[in-house]
Amino acid sequence: MENNMRSRAIVLLSGGLDSTTCLAWAQANYECIALSFMYGQRSTTELDAAKALAQRAGVEHRIINIDLGNLGGSALTDHNIEVPEQLQEGIPVTYVPARNTIFLSYALAAAEVFDAAAIVIGINAVDYSGYPDCRPEFIDAFANLAHLATKAGVEGKPLKIETPLLHLSKANIIRLGIEHGVDYSQTVSCYQADAQGRACGKCDSCRLRQQGFIEAGIADPTRYAE
């Protein structure tokens, strides 16, 4: 089928491993528009990665500016809260309150504007660090909200929330990305990457990523600061 005949999808692209895998997966199924966020995060080099990845993929890319840093409450948006170097029980301090709800709401608006049939988000219920907004129940609830709160839903064309990574391990996410030609050396997953986009190798995100490459039996191409 020709590309211009396919349905359109809004893909949430952070510049990290999971979202980049989602973009590659989505391109095989949809005409894609990538959406990223400057939300007051500690490291913004992930946005540089997202911009480069979208350009390489040949997809339209929008960066939305919102200020969750003004609220704080997370190690990712408040420099007074340290990013932990040990795995934490329960909901960790790297959880950003309502972040995925806000991101999906913006994606919902974009889907209405650009007449998209789907939103693609790289949440994962296996290696999800305990975040409450990465659970299947959350996605089901948001899909119901989208059905009720949008013109498309009211007119009987409900938006689909695609979560291709939801039940995959990090190793299987990496394998999926490799199948779709993802160059993971271009991605930035670290919670506190330096100005060059080099990873700390110590935070939860780095640890899960490292373990994923080990379990997938694939050499880790991540650039580390140390």
UniProtKB/TrEMBL annotation:
Organism: Acinetobacter courvalinii
GO molecular function: ATP binding; ligase activity, forming carbon-nitrogen bonds; zinc ion binding
Gene3D superfamilies: HUPs
BP terms from Gene Ontology: tRNA queuosine(34) biosynthetic process
UniProt cofactor note: Binds 1 zinc ion per subunit.
Pathway the protein acts in: Purine metabolism; 7-cyano-7-deazaguanine biosynthesis
Enzyme Commission number(s) of this protein: 6.3.4.20
Protein name: 7-cyano-7-deazaguanine synthase
Assigned protein family: Belongs to the QueC family.
Ligand binding (Zn(2+)): 190, 200, 203, 206
UniProt: ATP binding residues: 13-23
EC class (word): ligase
Cofactor: Zn(2+)
Top-level division of the source organism's lineage: Bacteria
Protein's job: Catalyzes the ATP-dependent conversion of 7-carboxy-7-deazaguanine (CDG) to 7-cyano-7-deazaguanine (preQ(0)).
Reaction catalysis annotation: 7-carboxy-7-carbaguanine + NH4(+) + 2 ATP = 7-cyano-7-carbaguanine + 2 AMP + 2 diphosphate + 2 H(+)
Swiss-Prot/TrEMBL keywords: ATP-binding, Ligase, Metal-binding, Nucleotide-binding, Queuosine biosynthesis, Zinc
Signal peptide: none
Lineage: Bacteria, Pseudomonadati, Pseudomonadota, Gammaproteobacteria, Moraxellales
InterPro entries: QueC, Rossmann-like_a/b/a_fold
